[in-house]
Amino acid sequence: MPGLEDLYREIILDHYRSPRNRGELETPPAVKALGHNPLCGDEISVFLQVEGNRVVDVKTSGQGCSISQSSASMMSAAVKGKTIDEVRALVHRFKSMMSIETDDGAPDGEVKLGDLEALQGVVKFPVRIKCAVLAWNTLVEALAEA
Predict the structure, then answer these.
(1) Chain Cα centroid distance, residue 86
(2) CA gyration radius for the chain?
(3) I want to staple 68 with a disulfide (CB 3.0 to 4.6 A). Which of 41, 95, 97, 131 is the partner?
(4) How far is CA 124 from each of CA 84, 86, 97, 120, rounded to the nearest angstrom?
């Protein structure tokens, strides 16, 4: 019987092999933010379309390791349709799970991570944490421009 670690590995590989929300959105109305990890060469572009206070569409593109690309896929699926406040709380909760100190005052109490919990094993490999949070940092940049 497969263990939790095997299940998490399968979720990560599924998002890597079949990424969700892959592609680009026309800019404008969408904003585009670029993220790059110079240590390993991972690159992520986040296209974000916000109407009112809601993320109505999000797409990602880029290249890199399975962790960075599956994190981008999971992130895009998790934030699509959410309000800006819900997205900020999700970012805060995800970064807390990755053991990154966040001091933005955003509450994360009842935020459910779902498939994103599959990435919690990354914290055992500190050099890979930057791969997992690259899409999230790029999302924060896109939110600042939206």
Answers:
(1) 14
(2) 14
(3) 131
(4) 30, 27, 12, 8
Phi, psi of 89 (to 5 degrees): -65, -40
The three-point CA angle 51-54-55 to 5° equals 85
- 99 with 132: CB under 8 angstroms? no
The one-letter amino acid code at 15 reads H
To the nearest 5 percent, what fractions of the chain are helix, strand and coil?
A: 50, 20, 30
83-136 confidence digits (pLDDT tens) = 999 999 999 999 999 986 555 555 545 688 988 999 999 999 998 999 999 999
Q: Which helix (H) or strand (E) holds 96?
A: helix 84-97
Show the domain range for 107.
Answer: 4-145
The tokens describing 113, both together, are 């991570």
Alpha-carbon gap, residue 30 to 118, rounded angstroms: 29
Parallel, antiparallel, or unpaired for β 31-37 and 54-63? unpaired
Number of domains the chain contains: 1
Q: How many CB atoms lie within 10 A of CB 61?
A: 18
pTM comes to: 0.90
The CATH number assigned to the domain holding 20 equals 3.90.1010.10
Q: In this structure, are residues 61 and 22 in contact, taking their beta carbons and an 8 Å threshold?
A: yes
